[in-house]
Amino acid sequence: SQEEAPSTDLITLTRHVLSEGFRLGPAATGDLTLLLNAIQTTSKFIATNVRRARLINLVGLAGETNVQGEEQKKLDVLSNDIMVNSLRASGKTAVLVSEELEEAVIIDEKNRGKYCVVFDPLDGSSNIDAGVNIGTIFGIYHVKGENKGSVDDVLRPGREMVAAGYVMYGSSCNLVLSTGNGVNGYTLDPSLGEFILTHPDIKVPSRGKIYSINEGNSMYYHEPVLKYLSSIKNPPSGKSPYSARYIGSMVADVHRTLLYGGIFCYPNDKKSKSGKLRLLYEAFPMAYLTEQAGGVATTGTKRILDIEPKNIHERCSVFLGSKEDVQDLIKFYEGSA
Ligand code: AHG
Ligand code: MN
Ligand code: MN
Ligand code: MN
């Protein structure tokens, strides 16, 4: 059989984002393109460090605790520093919020731009030392009006984001991005150092066969979650139960959910009253991508993207994924299932 020749028309992330910019016409200043370029570069840099972590003594703890009371890993701190430096230097940002920094960073006048970036520099820290998939999550707002940039510019509902995405450091390095016009996935070609469009227009299947939750917390779960889980594990006769998949890195669990369908859950419960995942830089970007891919993202009782944040590190309950699966879950909250 004849092998197919390699493509001679590579759609790189930069090319793709530029063409989207052109589509915006005169409204596009190119600033978002440049900002996304900075994020691309940081991703490649973090990817390289993740890949070599064991070899260059980057595994293990950094010795400090972050504002959430978590012990920071060396890679958490390094990734945070890489992102802050690069985003500041891009000249396109006004406000930065990171999981690893207690306060929002307000960019000095000399470097100031019009965008605010909220990010989780390294997601899935507990998986680092075992070499399991980890990631970076980000969301982007435009400052309000002609603002210089203040914390108010990021205390806004996720639906006001102009772009969101994540990078997954796994068997390959994948960047998944939405600028409000669907979702596209790119794979890093390490020999070129470029992200190539490999997953155009990602749509989450309307129903899946997988559920993803840390079921070890069952004893704390509220009734609707327990009943929903029971319904998918004990379906009416003739139907197959759902399969369980839980990696413990939100990026990896959401990535699989977007591609294969199903439901990802991190509910609030009797122990964690607001859940675990952070609203600004975990729930919002992932909810934005899920909706852009045709899925649903809810707290169980409310659309995630409609939440008005009160503080930058607040948490929220998360259920997201295939439309029909998440709607089934919502019925248990409404008491109508
Ligand atoms: P982070 O490593 O950025 O602190 O995030 C960890 C999060 C998220 O990636 C994952 O979905 C969740 O924590 C896993 O939590 P459990 O270990 O409680 O299941
Ligand atoms: Mn953490
Ligand atoms: Mn995280
Ligand atoms: Mn993190």
Please explain how this structure is put together:
The longest helix is centred in the first third of the chain and has 22 residues, at 31-52. This protein has helices at 13-23, 31-52, 74-89, 223-233, 250-260, 279-292, 323-334; strands at 61-65, 71-73, 93-98, 105-106, 112-123, 134-142, 163-169, 173-178, 184-189, 194-199, 210-212, 243-244, 263-266, 296-298, 318-321. Strand 8 (173-178) and strand 9 form a beta hairpin. The strands form 3 sheets. It has an 8-stranded mixed β-sheet, sandwiched between helices. A 5-stranded mixed β-sheet has the order 12-11-13-15-14, sandwiched between helices. The protein has a two-stranded antiparallel ribbon with strand order 1-2. The protein has 337 residues and is an alpha+beta fold. One manganese (II) ion binds next to strand 5.
Keywords, separated by commas or semicolons:
337 residues; alpha+beta; eight-stranded mixed beta sheet; five-stranded mixed beta sheet; 7 helices; globular; binds 2,5-anhydro-1,6-di-O-phosphono-D-glucitol; binds manganese (II) ion
Percent in helix: 25-40%
Bound molecules: 2,5-anhydro-1,6-di-O-phosphono-D-glucitol, manganese (II) ion
Shape: globular
Derived structural class: alpha+beta
Q: Which sheet architecture does the biggest sheet show?
A: 8 strands, mixed
SSE string:
HHEEHEEEEEEEEEHEHEHEEH
Compute the number of strand runs.
15
Helix count equals 7
Mean of all residue-level pLDDT scores: 95
Q: Report the β-strand fraction as a percent range.
A: 15-25%
Give the low-pLDDT segments: none
